Amino acid sequence: MAAPKKGRRPAGGQSRPGRALALILIAMVALTGGMFWSGHTTPRLGIDLAGGTSITLKAKAEPGQESAVNETNMNTAVGIIERRVNGLGVSEAEVQTQGKENIIVNIPRGTNEKQAREQVGTTAQLYFRPVLAVTNGGPAAAPSASSSGSPSAKPSSSASGSTAGEKQATPTATGSAQGRALTEALKAPSPTPTGSASPSTTPKATGTPSATPTPDAATAALQQKFTSLNCLDPKQRTAAGQGVKPTEPTVACGEDEPGVWSKYLLGPAEVEGRDVDDAKGQLDQQRGMWIVTMDFTDAGSKKFQAITGKLSAQADPQNRFAIVLDGEVVSAPSVRQTLSASAEISGNFNQQSAQDLGNILSYGALPLTFETQSVDTVTAALGGEQLEAGLIAGAIGLGLVIIYLVAYYRGLSLIAILSLGVSALLTYVIMALLGPTIGFALNLPAVCGAIVAIGITADSFIVYFERIRDELREGRTLRPAVERAWPRARRTILVSDFVSFLAAAVLFIVTVGKVQGFAFTLGLTTLLDVVVVFLFTKPVMTLLARTKFFGDGHAWSGLDPKRLGAKPPLRRTRRANASSAGPVDPKEA
């Protein structure tokens, strides 16, 4: 005996609307709970709404390299600055060129605004240079009998598998003894390993047959520069390494602790910042100090292995290499073994300074030097007025939509209003969560996108309601009409929302700046429209179709068959036709 057939589910039907409603309710509760748990209960605002800082940077070429200020390098600089700022979690930062040599950076007010201001113009030229000599940061004293003395070295540490060392100065000599030490350091062979660098990377007076006890002009000039350098003077610190090529020896200053400086005589650069693959600031749990760890590229690892192998055989301070960032020594660790894959910078770092340096090194050095032309504070007064005007316009539009729905759809307007409320709640909560997660910030164009989305969402309800009404006009009752109308309405809604989302995606890709906020919000609300219609509007309509008010076609339900001009039920029409035709004559049959 054949098993009885199970009842067929109505076409496009949803036998258990409670499941869909439970799913969207769980999602709403989870998202709302996550919003309160994160502590960000309001969306982050862009610079036009929250205010912030506008910085103008002007590109400055090195002497003899005026052609470096070109469109390619400017665009590269824009990308690096933007990645740096966004890497700090600053929302809605705008970086764009103005003219041929200016870059405008708009940073909204936020938790990392100060850090972003400090990093936007930092060149971040990183070099690893061998240390030839180091002494206190003041100018050299006049020669005297008491000025000479034996070197007094402070110990520096090293760790297995990475370089480490406090950024402490090692006073080597003063006065006349200092001059003799400098001459010997410049005459001594550079620790550059054979085959790891071109001959041009060694000092002019280092290891050449023509070197004599009397320094040549270049050596004498460098010696004089090192002797007279006063690292306590900010202007001298900044100008110390300007215009020096990586292949030339130089002098630089380094801060051992707040207010305490040392000055260094450095050899040619052996490793550059471009050889660093990744860098990040982190807390060394064993030593209880903040450090910056670096991983090198394949080529950088080979260079680093070669220089550390050579330095490890030298005596202090020439077994140290200085990590020089934008002309300033940030660390000068000693090397006791050959290293290759990674290194670490240790010194007087706190959490912020370590993470800032890691962020800068990770995203690369700027191809140009920039000077800050202006730093202006942008108030949110004008944006606030525009936002208020926009919200008023949105409220008026929403009010007109509700009036239309109530006047035309009557009871069905309740479903539309509830659906709009669910969509608005999801939009708000998601925007609040996207702020701390991906740095999304609400600006004026984004508000416009949310207002436009009201019409898109309302259009989906109207499509479904009209399909239901069409089924009722064909003489069907409400419950079958709701299920039969859904497949046709669903296709129309999906096609319409797909076109809107595609337009938003294209607009987001091809535009920059604030217009992307409009496109992002439009795309987000379009996706939420699909979610709300499928998981809320349709299930609620299915449940309400079972009630007497809607099922019997009350005059205020919006589904009154008489007002819709519905045809009589198809079954009743056939019965009426059969009874009116009378009995059939057998002869005629």
Beta-strand percentage range: 15-25%
The helicity comes to 40-55%
Structural class: alpha+beta
Number of strands: 13
Order of helices and strands: HHEHEEHEHHHEEEEEHEEEHEHHHHHHHH
Mean pLDDT: 74
- Given as residue ranges, the uncertain stretches (5+ residues, pLDDT < 50) are 10-14, 141-179, 188-214, 572-581
User: What's the arrangement of strands in the largest beta sheet?
Assistant: 4-6-5-11-10
Shape: elongated
What is the helix tally? 17
What Rg do the Cα atoms give? 37 Å
In whole angstroms, the N-to-C terminal distance is 39 Å
Largest sheet: 5 strands, mixed, barrel
Which helices and strands occur, and which strands form pairs?
Blueprint: H1 17-38, H2 47-50, E1 52-60, H3 71-87, E2 94-98, E3 102-108, H4 113-119, E4 126-136, H5 175-187, H6 217-228, H7 234-239, E5 250-257, E6 260-266, E7 271-272, E8 276-284, E9 289-296, H8 298-311, E10 321-325, E11 328-331, E12 342-346, H9 351-363, E13 369-378, H10 381-409, H11 412-438, H12 444-473, H13 478-510, H14 515-544, H15 548-551, H16 561-564, H17 570-581
Parallel strand pairs: 5-11
Antiparallel strand pairs: 1-3, 1-13, 2-3, 4-6, 4-7, 4-10, 5-6, 8-9, 9-12, 10-11
Helix pairs in contact: 1-11, 1-14, 5-6, 10-11, 10-12, 11-12, 11-14, 12-13, 12-14, 13-14
